[in-house]
């Protein structure tokens, strides 16, 4: 591969990656609608509080905390494509249940939380399989570019999804808007089913079947690795802070600033615009600066973004509403820009440095504890907001973002580069 090819690898030359990308894009668009619709449903339809939004978010991610490590080991024993197909179809069925219960006047917060626990379990399986499946579709040197392509489509979704979600919620109601996501998972599952990349046969797997040992191997790989360990620990802290501010954001906008669902969608769309711009340059920046410096720089920008949002003027009246939307949207744009540059570099480095037989455990070990931070941070953020107000919680989380970025900058991860992360490397 020439130097130019290395810098701009055309990952769409892999037909199965194209199918994977289409499936992820379609389901991601639906999910962007549901993410907003469910929170609006809790606040406006079920008349819930910020604490209720936090409980709903926690229920979705609770399975990562409870069974995440075991799922990673199990996924490493199996072909990943059938898992992706089955979990997509299962999530489509669960989402259809929400508007059906609403139409029968049987939808309440405990029922919605139970559905989200089931949904989160299927998402856990899907996430473990998807992130472990990608390195089988794309060769190691192209993983950064592949993740950047996924981030680019995700950013376009984040731009259009909230606007569409705001319009659908306003026109059809939040429960009915969830149906769009159900259809998207159906399309995604059928698309994944057409992928033909050969996977190793589980019967040919020579590893032992001691589940406890396999889980321990994944934990050791992640938390004893000189570079992955500090990145992983810092990311856990980031998720704790992020879960607090994202839980507070929707009630802060709807109740604190008195924005409409569509205006909230406009501010969230700004994050998608920033994310798209960031993802377009993420490969170039990562190869020039290195994975470590790129991720650290992005983590340092995020406190600034949330500080802007925390001090947005409100409650907004007819004269100040546009300015409030502009301020919150500017903070979301900066936040999305940092995420767009960071994500491909972080994921590309993780996937490249980890052997194939440990991909599932690396992914679920990292994601399980990350989601455990959401299980803790989301309800805590919501309850604190109910007690002390939205802005104090956002300011506290902003300080946490800054602390996490500083700790990561002081670690060996600051020297990480994509060129020194071969797939066969060891800790």
Notes on the structure:
This protein has 427 residues and is mainly α. The chain has one domain: Up-down Bundle (Growth Hormone, Chain: A). The chain is built from 14 helices and no strands. The protein has helices at residues 3-7, 15-45, 50-75, 81-103, 109-137, 143-172, 174-192, 211-224, 228-256, 261-289, 291-310, 321-353, 359-388, 390-409. Helix 2 (15-45) packs antiparallel against helix 7 and helix 13 runs antiparallel to helix 14 (390-409). The two termini are 27 Å apart.
Strand content: under 5%
Number of strands: 0
Shape: globular
So, CATH architecture? Answer: Up-down Bundle
Q: Classify the oligomer.
A: single chain
Q: How far do the termini sit from each other?
A: 27 Å
Number of domains: 1
Short description:
With 427 residues, the protein is mainly alpha-helical. It has 14 helices and no strands.
Q: Which helices and strands occur, and which strands form pairs?
A:
Blueprint: H1 3-7, H2 15-45, H3 50-75, H4 81-103, H5 109-137, H6 143-172, H7 174-192, H8 211-224, H9 228-256, H10 261-289, H11 291-310, H12 321-353, H13 359-388, H14 390-409
Helix pairs in contact: 2-6, 2-7, 3-5, 3-8, 3-9, 3-13, 4-5, 4-7, 5-13, 6-7, 6-10, 6-12, 8-9, 8-13, 9-13, 9-14, 10-11, 10-12, 11-12, 11-14, 13-14
């Amino acid at each position: 591969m020439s130097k130019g090819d290395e810098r701009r690898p055309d990952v769409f030359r892999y037909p199965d990656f194209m199918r994977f990308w289409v499936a992820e894009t379609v389901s991601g668009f639906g999910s962007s609608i549901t993410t907003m619709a469910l929170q609006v449903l809790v606040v406006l339809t079920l008349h819930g509080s910020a604490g209720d939004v936090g409980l709903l978010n926690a229920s979705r991610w609770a399975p990562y905390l409870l069974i995440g490590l075991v799922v990673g080991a199990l996924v490493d024993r199996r072909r990943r494509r059938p898992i992706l197909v089955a979990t997509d179809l299962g999530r489509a069925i669960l989402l259809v249940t929400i508007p059906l219960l609403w139409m029968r006047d049987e939808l309440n917060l405990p029922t919605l939380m139970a559905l989200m626990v089931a949904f989160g379990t299927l998402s856990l399986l899907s996430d473990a399989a998807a992130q472990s499946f990608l390195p089988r579709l794309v060769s190691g040197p192209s993983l950064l570019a592949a993740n950047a392509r996924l981030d680019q489509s995700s950013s376009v979704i984040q731009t259009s999804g909230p606007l569409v979600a705001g319009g659908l919620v306003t026109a059809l109601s939040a429960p009915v808007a969830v149906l769009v996501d159900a259809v998207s998972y159906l399309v995604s599952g059928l698309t994944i089913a057409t992928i033909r990349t050969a996977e190793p046969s589980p019967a040919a797997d020579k590893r032992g079947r001691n589940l406890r040992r396999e889980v321990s191997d994944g934990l050791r790989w992640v938390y004893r690795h000189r570079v992955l360990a500090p990145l992983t620990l810092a990311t856990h802290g980031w998720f704790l802070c992020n879960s607090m501010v994202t839980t507070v954001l929707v009630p802060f906008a709807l109740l604190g600033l008195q924005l409409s669902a569509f205006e909230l969608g406009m501010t969230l769309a700004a994050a998608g615009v920033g994310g798209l711009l960031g993802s377009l340059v993420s490969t170039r920046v990562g190869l020039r600066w290195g994975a470590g410096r790129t991720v650290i720089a992005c983590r340092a920008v995020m406190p600034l973004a949330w500080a802007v949002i925390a001090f947005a003027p409100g409650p907004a009246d007819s004269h100040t509403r546009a300015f409030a939307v502009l301020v919150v949207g500017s903070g979301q744009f900066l936040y999305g820009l940092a995420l767009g540059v960071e994500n491909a570099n972080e994921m590309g480095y993780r996937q490249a440095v980890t052997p194939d037989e440990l991909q599932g455990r690396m992914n679920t070990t990292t994601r399980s504890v990350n989601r455990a931070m959401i299980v803790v941070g989301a309800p805590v953020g919501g309850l604190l907001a109910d007690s002390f107000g939205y802005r104090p919680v956002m300011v506290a989380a902003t300080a946490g973002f800054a602390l996490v970025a500083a700790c990561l900058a002081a670690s060996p991860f600051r020297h990480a580069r994509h060129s020194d992360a071969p797939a066969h490397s060891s800790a």
